[in-house]
Amino acid sequence: MKEGTLSGKRIRPRYGKSKLGLTVSEISRELRSIIDARFKEHGVSSARWVVLWALEELGEPVSQKRIANLLGIESPTLVRMLDRLEEDGLVRRNPSVEDRRVKLVELCAKAEPLLEEMHALFLQLEKDLYVGFSEEELIQAHNVMLKLRDRVFDLSGKTREDVIDHISHQGNRG
After folding, report:
1. φ/ψ of residue 91, rounded to 5
2. CATH (one of 1.10.10.10, 3.40.50.970, 3.40.630.30, 3.10.620.30) for 17-168
3. Percent of the chain scored above 90 by pLDDT?
């Protein structure tokens, strides 16, 4: 593809690896914005949703540290979010029996109907999002993104916790 100009500046076209990271970032940002807009009436942001979803997928009480690592967020950010989720009666934190300094987080029964509604909204979003793509195209795109994700982890020098593989290989509902 040829480079273009805009106001005298050279612009590389988006093709292959050129600006792929920018495109992925734009998609991620806009998708979070759409999720936030669709979930707003239920009092759930994309950030809150992903914490609830992770807890549901894990299916057992899990440490705050493990959740923060899984989601790639700082512990203080997660603690503030968990404070709000706990105030809303959606999660509870209990000290670990093995180490009372460790707080284990689990979903409360009040979260179940909210999660069901969020799954339904997310499934509709997926239908809206994937219109015009074949299943083969989506499988290929997803496989490429998984390879890129693994390479990013390799380059960062971080190791993925088992839980990431656990969640990424399950049949997600949203």
Report:
1. -135, 165
2. 1.10.10.10
3. 51
